[in-house]
UniProtKB/TrEMBL annotation:
Name of this protein: Gliding motility-associated C-terminal domain-containing protein
Biological source species: Cellulophaga fucicola
UniProt KW keywords: Disulfide bond, Membrane, Repeat, Signal
Transit peptide keyword on record: no
NAD among keywords: no
Cross-referenced NCBIfam families: Bac_Flav_CTERM
Residue ranges occupied by any Ig-like domain in the UniProt entry: 502-585
Signal peptide segment: 1-18
InterPro entries: Ig-like_dom (IPR007110), Ig-like_dom_sf (IPR036179), Ig-like_fold (IPR013783), Leu-rich_rpt (IPR001611), LRR_dom_sf (IPR032675), LRR_R13L4/SHOC2-like (IPR055414), T9SS_type_B (IPR026341)
């Protein structure tokens, strides 16, 4: 019985304990009313089991509520945090929320709550998670937030909070997640945030924060995510960011950052996402970024990056999105990037890239977007790129790509947009391109495409709303009416945009020459079954000239001019094709003929006959010039026809004249002559090899001989008198063709000698020759006289020579040694010589003051000046003092005056007199 009584007591006690307090229930009711509970999704749906029924007990069955041990420990109105899963909370958080004193989790993301966070909420010290993201809260973050000492996750992103982050916030040492992006917080982030070592997520993007990136952020070694984009941060990215080796996501874009990308970021071996865009960061992409082998997204757009893309980035084989668009990057795309088999988006447009697209890019088998527009790239597109079967956008506009578009690109069945405009592509478009079944925009403007355009009418179809913007842009190419006239009506009427005019001029430019009285036919050939022609002469329409051929009979000089033809079509409207101009010159005497150069060949056996190698195309080009519509023939001097071949032996010894006749379509002609000259063998001058010191001057050669730096008249031609400063072989060439001769000689230029160089010197009694590195001392020039050595004593004035010799190279300098007793400091005669005998203070700038001469050696002491009566007139320092001949501002007369000098140590006392002359 006692056991049964105990069980009943335990049961009723547990039931009592499980009920929340009246204060907590009242707090829930206040929350329910303040957030418009009756209109919550959970309250208005068909499921009443999770409604907040205040007539009964509070249980964990209530939507979003968790009750443990009689306390509400969690309110989670949106467990998935998705906007489409919100519970339609509106209104504000009531101050009674503080009565939920055991609350650990408060999650209200993606609702429609407004107002400020009540200060009472910060009294809930048990809170571990506070999620108010994506509402319409306003106000500031108060210092009282420091009371939430157990807080580990704080989500405030996507609201209207403002003000600065209080320094008290940085005392929340348990905090791991701090997300406040997309608010209006301002000021500088407290540097003390770098002491919050448990932080895993730091999301500060899209606020007007100022300041700079602290190097101390490198202390937050537990960070997985650091986003600070869309602020007003200045300065550079600290090297210390390389310490954040656990970082998986880094975003610093849209700030006023400058400097360069620190190579230390290459240490972030766990990084998967890096986004640094819209800054003033310059310099190149560090090769160390090739160590970021976990990166799948690298966005470095809209900066001032230069240099080339490092080949080391080929190591990033997980790359999915790569963008360096809108920078100053140059050089070629590295072939190593072909290792990016997972890449889906590659954007490098608006840079200064050169070269072609590497064939290794055929491995981009998952590519959807490739945009290399607005660069300086060139070359042809590889057929191997047909492996890009997933591509949806291909944009290569404004480059210099050339060649044909490979027909194998018909494999691009997912292609939606292709833009090849403003390049140098040519050739025809493959009919198989109609396999582009998902295409809605084809832009091939301003290239050199020609030929029949594939029938895109089944894939570029009508779109009444224009929502897909189907476009076909083929203008600025070499297309003619017949290339698309069968599809013209469909394109013109059904497509959102069809651009086909203008096109390039048709047919070749021609320069025709004829003579008076002859006939000529001018023609144009343009495809199309409904063409209309109109010929023009000098810009004026020719009446009745409305056929593809224009026949001109009985030509006169007045028929000379520039002829063109405008072709239109009754099917392809609004397109006019113009024939390239035909310039017709009607001469009284036939077509013009230019001078042809004589041709030489060596007659080795000197019999007057030899074989000539003739370039007939070159001969004809010389004779005809830019004319077209003419025929070239050859005649003997007597007017009989002459057949020339590429290998021709002259039939007239030594010197044979050949007549070149240029005949136009009307039978008019003009002649010119050239000669086949058999030349005799000749011998070139011969120079011996030479060894020169420093340089060598080329001597004169015989007439007809010339110097060259390479054999067979290649390299640079040199002249007699040119100075050779480098060791090399020089070639002497004379004659032409097989009669030419050549010799060569070697010039060895030895480096010039170094020789010691000493200044002139004056000594008291003896001068000791110093040590020199190059050369030897001599008493006479050119290594003559007595050879002296370092340390020798020179006791009399003389010139000393320093001479050096190596082979034929010599070099010499000299200096004068003057032995002068006046240079001796302890000589009474030398000391007295320092005191002038007179001076002339006439203010003419010459000898205006009396002072001690300090040349050769310095004399230190005190000088006093006296008149003949012993009156002291002046006292000054011997080193820098002087006397200008005045006393108390009055000029003294011409006379003798006395001086007294006393050295500083009193060892020298010297007196004398001098004259003042005016």
């Amino acid at each position: 019985m006692r056991f049964f009584t105990y069980i009943l007591f335990f049961f009723f006690t547990t039931v009592l304990i499980a009920q929340v307090t009246p204060e907590e229930k009242a707090a829930l009711l206040a929350f329910y009313i303040a957030t418009d509970g009756p209109n919550w999704v959970s309250e208005t749906d068909a499921d009443p089991t999770n409604d907040w029924d205040f007539s009964g007990n509070v249980t964990s069955d209530w939507y979003g509520v968790t009750v443990t041990s009689g306390n509400v420990v969690s309110i989670d109105m949106n467990p998935t945090r998705n906007s489409n899963a919100a519970n339609n909370l509106t209104g504000v958080i009531p101050p009674e929320i503080e009565d939920l004193s055991s609350l650990k989790t408060l999650r209200l993301p993606a609702e429609n709550l407004t107002g400020t966070i009540p200060l009472s909420l910060y009294n809930i010290t048990s809170l571990v998670t506070l999620d108010l993201a994506r509402n319409n809260f306003s106000g500031t973050m108060p210092p009282e937030i420091a009371q939430l000492t157990n807080l580990r996750s704080l989500y405030l992103s996507g609201n209207d909070f403002s003000g600065e982050i209080p320094i008290e916030f940085t005392t929340l040492n348990q905090l791991q997640v701090f997300e406040i992006s997309n608010n209006d917080f301002s000021g500088e982030i407290p540097i003390e945030i770098t002491n919050m070592l448990n932080l895993r997520v730091l999301q500060l993007s899209n606020n007007p924060f100022t300041g700079f990136l602290y190097p101390e952020y490198g202390n937050l070694i537990n960070l997985n995510l650091f986003h600070f984009s869309g602020n007003l941060i200045t300065g550079s990215i600290p090297t210390e960011f390389g310490n954040l080796t656990g970082l998986r996501s880094l975003s610093l874009g849209s700030n006023d950052l400058s400097g360069v990308l620190p190579p230390s970021l290459g240490n972030l071996s766990n990084l998967q996402y890096i986004n640094i865009y819209a800054t003033s960061i310059s310099g190149s992409i560090p090769p160390e970024f090739g160590n970021l082998t976990s990166v799948n997204t690298m966005l470095l757009t809209s900066n001032s990056l230069s240099g080339s893309i490092p080949s080391s980035l080929g190591n990033l084989t997980q790359m999915n999105r790569f963008s360096v668009k809108l920078n100053l990057i140059s050089g070629e795309l590295p072939s190593t990037l072909g290792a990016w088999s997972n890449i889906s988006s590659f954007e490098a447009y608006e840079n200064q890239l050169t070269g072609n697209i590497p064939e290794s890019f055929q491995n981009f088998t998952n590519i959807k977007t490739l945009n290399l527009s607005v660069n300086q790239m060139s070359g042809e597109l590889s057929p191997l790129f047909s492996s890009w079967t997933t591509i949806e956008t291909l944009d290569l506009q404004l480059n210099s790509f050339s060649g044909e578009l490979p027909g194998s690109y018909s494999s691009f069945t997912n292609l939606k947009k292709i833009n090849l405009a403003d390049n140098e592509f040519s050739g025809e478009l493959s009919p198989s391109f109609i396999n582009w079944i998902n295409i809605n925009s084809i832009d091939i403007r301003n290239n050199e495409f020609e030929g029949v355009i594939p029938d895109f009418t089944t894939i570029l179809t009508a779109d009444p709303t224009g929502s897909n913007g189907e476009n076909l842009k083929i203008n600025g190419n070499k297309f003619e009416f017949g290339d698309f006239e069968d599809q013209f009506t469909h394109y013109n009427e059904q497509l959102f945009g069809f651009f086909y005019s203008p096109q390039a001029n048709v047919n070749d430019v021609e320069n025709l020459t004829s003579c008076s009285g002859s006939s000529i036919t001018l023609s144009t050939v343009v495809s199309g079954r409904a063409n209309v022609y109109q010929w023009f002469k000098n810009g004026t329409a020719i009446s009745g000239a409305t056929s593809a051929d224009l026949v001109l009979n009985s030509l006169g000089t007045t028929d000379s001019g520039t002829y063109t033809c405008i072709i239109t079509s009754t099917i392809v409207t609004d397109l006019s094709l113009e024939r390239n101009p035909i310039t017709l010159t009607v001469n009284l005497t036939g077509p013009a003929v230019n001078t042809v150069n004589d041709i030489f060949s060596c007659d080795l056996d000197e019999d007057g006959y030899t074989n000539f190698t003739l370039d007939l195309a070159s001969i004809e080009s010389q004779a005809v010039g830019l004319q077209s519509g003419v025929v070239v023939s050859y005649l003997n001097p007597n007017g009989t026809p002459l057949t020339l071949t590429n290998n021709y032996t002259n039939t007239i010894p030594n010197n044979q004249t050949v007549t070149v006749r240029v005949t136009d379509m009307g039978g008019c002609y003009n002649d010119t002559n050239f000669k086949l000259i058999a030349t005799q063998p000749i011998v070139a001058d011969s120079n011996s090899d030479v060894i020169a010191c420093g340089s060598y001057i080329l001597p004169e050669l015989s007439v007809g001989n010339n110097y060259y730096t390479e054999t067979n008249t290649n390299g640079m031609q040199l002249q007699a008198g040119d100075i050779i400063t480098n060791t090399q072989t020089i070639y002497i060439h004379t004659g032409i063709g097989s009669c030419a001769d050549e010799t060569n000689f070697r010039i060895t230029v030895e480096p010039p000698l170094l020789v010691g160089d000493l200044e002139d010197v004056t000594e008291c009694g003896v001068y000791i020759l110093p040590t020199i590195m190059n050369g030897n001392y001599f008493t006479e020039t050119n290594g003559q006289g007595l050879r002296l050595s370092s340390g020798d004593s020179i006791t009399e004035t003389q010139t000393i020579y320093i001479f050096n010799q190596r082979g034929s190279c010599t070099e010499e300098t000299s200096f004068e040694v003057r032995i002068d007793l006046l240079a001796c400091e302890d000589s009474e005669e030398a000391i007295k010589s320092k005191f002038p005998n007179f001076f002339t203070p006439n203010q003419d700038g010459i000898n205006d003051v009396w002072k001690v001469d300090q040349e050769l050696f310095t004399l230190e002491g005190i000088v006093t000046i006296h008149d003949r009566y012993g009156k002291l007139l002046k006292q000054f320092n011997a080193v820098n003092g002087s006397w200008d001949g005045t006393f108390n501002g009055q000029r003294l007369p011409s006379a003798d005056y006395w001086y007294k000098f006393t050295s500083l140590d009193g060892a020298i006392v010297l007196t004398g007199h001098f004259t003042l002359k005016r």
